[in-house]
Structure formats: C-alpha cells, structure tokens
Amino acid sequence: MVRFTVLASGSKGNSTVVSGGHTRILVDAGLSCRELFKRMRQAGEEPETLDAILITHEHQDHINGVAVTARKLGIPVYFTESTHRAWMRWLTPKRQMSYAQWLEQCKQQAAARQAEADAATPEGETDEPDTVDLQTKEEEPAPAAGQKDPTWLPAVEYFEAGKPFVIGDIAISPFTIPHDAADPVGFVLQAEGVRMAVATDLGYMPPNVKAQLKGLDLLMLESNHDLEMLRDGPYPWSVKQRVLSRVGHLSNEAAAEFLETGYDGQAGYVILGHLSESNNHPELARVAAERALSGRASLLANRLLLAEQHQPLFPIYF
Ligand SMILES: [Zn+2]
Ligand SMILES: [Zn+2]
Questions:
Q1: Of 154, 149, 139, 156, which is closest to residue 80 (Cα–Cα)?
Q2: % of the chain exceeding 70 in pLDDT
C-alpha cells in the first residue's frame, strides 16, 4: 500500500512521509526530531520504520531536524552534494582569524599530518563501521561515534537532479527548482505504480518542472502567498522582493495559473503546501486553486487539500 502523509508544511518546518512497498522515506526534516516523531505517531506512522531521509534543499525549514533524526534512527540522508556542503558550512561555526593565525594553523596541521603519517601502522586501524562515504572522501577523520561534530551523519548518499534513483521499493526522480538555495530540487516519487510529486519552494514554474508534473496521482504544490497580502504585509521590502523573485516562492496566483493552463488535471489529489502564515490565508489559496481546477471534467480527480504548519494532514492512501 502506498501512503503519503504531510507532517508539516510552511516556513516553520516541512516534512512528509512517503511509504510504498516495504520502504518508508521522510522527505525533508524541517521540524525537530522530537516533533517529527510526535507528528508521525499522531498520523499513525512509526518513526522506527523509516529507511531514509531525502532532502530538497538546505533551508532551515527543510533540514532543521535532519542530523538528530538520522542519528537516532541510524538511517542514511540523501542530498545533492552542493546541498550537503551548504548545510555543513551553515553548521560550522565561523571564525575570524588574522593572516598570521592562519599561517600558524597551516603549520600545525602539516605537523599533525606528518605525525599521523609517521605513526600509521596496520594495527592502528579502527574497527569503526565503514558506512560514511562522505567522511572517507573528506580530509578530516570521522570523529569517534560522531557525537562532537554537528554535521556527522550515520550515512550520506548523493544524488543529482535529473538522474533518477531508487531507495528500496520507491523510485525517485529529482528535478531542479528555481529557488535561492545551493542546489534545490523537487521530487517525483513512484511506488507500486503510484506517482507523487513534491514541488514547493520555487519562484516560478519553469518548463522542466511542468514537464515533471504530468501523469501524477498526487501533486503537492506550493501556494505560498497572496500577491496583495504580500505587498501590503509586514515584511520589509527586501524580503518581499526575495519572496516575489524568480528564486523565491510560488504565489497563489502562479499556482492557480499552472493548475489552469500547465497541468494535465490527472492527479487524484492536489495538496497546496508551504502557505505563508503572514502573507496568505488558507481560504484565498483554496479559492484560487478551486477556480483554476473548476474546468476539469473528472469528479474523481483533483481532490483539493491544504497542508498545515501546525498539525499533520491525514494520511492519503492509494
Ligand atoms: Zn521552505
Ligand atoms: Zn526554501
């Protein structure tokens, strides 16, 4: 059985559980681990059965709980390499140092490397499990048990936009979205013949995204703000410009335009997501989408739902 459960959606945290066959994936981990587990249990999902975490981009509302959740469950995190690096940079404390301090640090590191090379013997190998691809690629050794390093994860897997891959029984097609992050993606997830898409955090609907959102059984689409509410709303002008830009967020109007003209009308469910709490009202988003979908002939398709920030949506079964 295939199941799609939105745990949270919005600028304070995004996370969805997708289950198919014997596989369960968490798409984004934008709430604390504790809150994620609480909401999963509320929605009838068991956190302990998750197989992997899949990340769309490194903004906090998508990644906040990733490290603690992955460590607690001992499961891999799937990123693009750029997203992973951006996240690691964000977590690494920034230090200012003078040129002299920098030179001194380089000298000390060189001396330490030399000492390590001199001391290396076959008996010196540790019996750490060999699961962390990333850390074998990086210069720095994995910290013991990883507890000290905030970026430590039990396992990291890289994917690339445009290159489909599989996690257990779920096939995943990541696609590039226009958004102000290092390498942001949306996903089409397919299991047991059911196709589900997550397309939030995008400034506009470029042709490559429209092409992905065809032949779906479920479409989760951003409907972030009402243009007038944003214009008249509380945000400073610079933030308004960012939201409105081509790498910002999709408005109710832009989502509706896509639903009316660019979408094939086939999905059984359309979930509006990432609604702004300051610059949108659920009824405005709903009405815009309903109007756009009203011309669709099939009564069985396009059941419209609104994902919420503060509580999970009921699980959708296929
Ligand atoms: Zn977001
Ligand atoms: Zn974002």
A1: 156
A2: 89
CA of 56 to the centre of ligand 2 (A): 9
Tell me the sheet residues that pair with 46: none
Ligand 1 center to 155 CA (angstroms): 24
- Which letter does DSSP use for residue 51 in this model? -
**Hey, what amino acid is at 93?**
P
Question: How far is 11 from 59, CA to CA, in rounded Å?
Answer: 9
Q: Which residues contact 167 (CB under 8 A, 6 or more apart)?
A: 23, 25, 51, 52, 54, 78
pLDDT in tens, 43-56: 999 999 999 999 99
Q: Parallel, antiparallel, or unpaired: how do β-strands 185-191 and 165-167 relate?
A: unpaired
**How many C-beta atoms surround the C-beta of residue 180 within 10 A?**
16
Measured in angstroms, how far is the CA atom of residue 88 from the centroid of ligand 1? 18
Which ligand ends up closest to the CA of 177?
Answer: 2
How far is 302 from 254, CA to CA, in rounded Å? 17
What is this structure's pTM? 0.84
Domains of the chain listed by start with CATH number:
3-90+152-317 (3.60.15.10)
Closest alpha carbon to 77 in 92, 58, 95: 58
